Amino acid sequence: MIKKLVIAISIVLMWGCTSLMDPINAVGKKVQQKEDKSQRQVTSSTEDHSPTADDPYYAPIDPSRNAEAILVTGSLFNSETAHDLYNYETTFQLGDSITVLLKEKAVATKSATSTLASATNYKLDPIQVPGGPMTVNGKVVELGMKQGQDFDGAADSAQSHSLTARITVSIVEILNNGNLKVRGEKWLVINNGKEYIRFTGIVRPSDITEKNSVESYQVANSRIEFSGTGDHADIQTQGWLSSFFSSSLWPI
Fold first, then answer.
1. I need a labelling partner for 205 at 20 to 30 A (CA). Which of 24, 83, 112, 226 fits?
2. Domain residue extents for the chain
């Protein structure tokens, strides 16, 4: 009887230890997840998109949050979402907006000069025969040749551009290192044409100011497209015949 009682007490103690260990092991581990019902989808593309308004590639994404892990720590404070009272630091989520200040200016010049020259002289002395030089109709037979070639080439190239504008983009992806992948566009309708600005790049959160803005030169792998469509853009485009005469296919 005593032996059975000892076995029963041991089983109860083991069950109690197991119950106490579960909360301890759960600290700092992912124990519960929220179900993501937003059906959010971020589409990546490497194709060259034609300039049309409301392109889904540049459209802002659904700001619904992803499925997040709930950490059971037993504390009222979460170190991942805490903010320092003396440092400006914001936690960004998918779909948040950031203003990009476009201040681009570049100047490039190039000059090249080429000079080629060659000369060839060949002379055959009069043919000597017994009695003196050979003559034909009283003229001494001799041969001479002279050849020369000159080439001069020069080329100058100068290009400059300046762009000052603002565009608000959306966060479409948060990278593993915390950097933010942003993308967005802006369309302006002016008379008979449309002008648009498209921007993509990777932003470091520490570069974002308190006004929720960042300079364009601080954006990594940035792609800036500023152009237009409509009558004004068509007038500035060469026709196919003019393009042929100004291309490298034209032999002259």
1. 226
2. 109-157
